Amino acid sequence: MTEASVLCHPDFSKAFKISCDASGVGIGGVLSQKGHPVAFFSEKLNSAKQKYSTYDKEFYVIVRALHYWQYYVFLNEFVLYSDHQVLRYIQS
To answer: Do 17 and 33 form a contact (C-beta atoms < 8 A)?
Structure first.
């Protein structure tokens, strides 16, 4: 029997982790800390956004996640995870 994930309260003295992913029809992200989810979001892409390239969809989910959780991460350290190889070097 597996246990369901329960959202935990954020600890602003510790770093946050944002995991993002995009698919052909939607995007989603998880804000977690110490291996436990704090919050999550998902969004269905409209027909115009579904025509975006993979790169654009992956970058779009990062922008949306940072906007969605701006009050958690902009004053604290955070790590951003994406499975898209090109975006790994976004800061360089």
So the answer is: yes
Strands 78-82 vs 36-44: parallel, antiparallel or unpaired: unpaired
Using the CB atoms, write b or e for 70-80: b if 16+ within 10 Å.
eebbeeeebeb
Alpha helices in 1-92 (DSSP H): 47-50, 54-68, 70-73
Model-wide pTM > 0.85: no
Strands 78-82 and 26-33: unpaired
Q: Which pLDDT tens digit goes with each residue over 14-53?
A: 999 999 999 999 999 999 998 899 999 999 999 999 999 8
Closest CA to 33 of 15, 21, 6, 7: 15
Amino acid present at 79? V
